[in-house]
Amino acid sequence: MTGKQKKEWKRNAIGYSFILPNFIGYFIFIFVPVILTFVLCVMKWDGSSTPMEFVGLKNFVKLFHDSGFRISVTNTLYYAVFTVPLTMVAALLIAVLLNSKIKGIVVYRTAFFFPYVASLVAVGAVWNMLFQPEFGPVNEFLKFIGIANPPKWCASTDWAMTVIIIVSVWKYMGYYMVVYLAALQGISQDLYEAASIDGATGFKKFRYITIPMLKPTTFFVIIMMTIQCFKVFDLIYVMTGGGPGRSTNVLVNHIYNAAFVDFKFGYASASALVLFAIVLVVTLVQFQGEKKFTDYV
């Protein structure tokens, strides 16, 4: 090996040494669990020293006959259907309001973004206190304005998911506000100036310039929010634990309970693969739709 080759080999070795820890972490915490999921989905195993038992597709058959699984899918869809548009609209409106030169704009932007970086456990605990049925500030206010029997919120099967949706919108709208802000600042001001010359009002500028120019960003936000909604777990686990009853039991919560409460790792792996399939379909739609929207705009 020549001196030049040794020098090049040393340079490559140093480069690989920097990325090696990331590859090791990915292999241990991502690749291996994914492979085990595919193996366990056709097995019956309780996580103990008991040998695995091959059951074929029985886990999937049981899955689609399980009322708990169907309820978790319905709850996830309900959560996504309301959370995605509400978060998107809130983020867009805030971004439009904050995309202007006003005094203290940095403070306002930081304030709206702060919930996204706040500790989720703290967020869940604080909102649970706000919606506490007996002496929470929300119900105290409702009583003050004349509502004698306010909702029980997280303790009610009818209102628990509503609380989760409200908190989710509040927590994540700041992140997507930043996404929309970046897109808004990329729109040429010449378009607005030309519209002003033609006599367009502020609303018409928003409708005919801002919204069309934000189509690729809006599509990206919808896809990312949908994927995020199908994977929601932490907020529900902290605030309701999937209850009361099964009113907030979503797909990931169902998988968690099957694996780490009931110790049905084969069944949980089958459920995880169904979730993986849903997310994969949404991702494929993203790749197909992204090109279509980009070409259109």
From TrEMBL:
This is Multiple sugar ABC transporter permease. The keyword Metal-binding does not apply. InterPro entries: ABC_transporter_permease, MetI-like, MetI-like_sf. Its main location: membrane. Keywords: Cell membrane, Membrane, Transmembrane, Transmembrane helix, Transport. Gene3D superfamilies: MetI-like. It comes from Enterocloster bolteae 90A9. Residues 73-286 form the ABC transmembrane type-1 domain. It is found in: Cell membrane. It comes from the Bacteria.
